[in-house]
Design brief:
alpha+beta; two-stranded antiparallel ribbon; 2 helices
């Protein structure tokens, strides 16, 4: 399943730390089933407006924002799952090309 969370008035680093706290919380809890406890993990991809090409059409900007988060999510899955990754614009062209960024756990 995929879930989208919008965190208004939140800086990217704060949002990614929140995502890491969510990831750690999910990882540390077992889900009880009728047969045995199940360990669940989560991969999270994030994006923020500073990493999104802004357009006069707000719906296009929103689509780019979600696309960047989706790209970061799939990179998290490719890089081993149970991770948090953030989308970043290509720093030279400032176009929508994902640059690897990683959130380190502060536990």
């Amino acid at each position: 399943e995929e879930i989208t969370a919008i965190l208004p008035d939140t800086q990217s680093d704060s949002a990614m730390r929140a995502a890491e706290r969510i990831r750690l919380n999910i990882e540390s809890n077992l889900v009880e089933t009728s047969t045995e406890p199940l360990k669940v993990t989560i991969s999270i991809g994030g994006n923020d407006l500073s990493q999104t090409q802004i357009d006069e059409d707000p719906s296009l900007t929103a689509a780019r924002l979600l696309k960047g988060a989706d790209e970061a999510l799939y990179r998290a899955k490719r890089e081993g799952r149970n991770t948090v990754r953030s989308f970043a614009l290509d720093p030279i062209s400032r176009t929508q090309s994902p640059i690897p960024t990683e959130v380190k756990s502060q536990s």
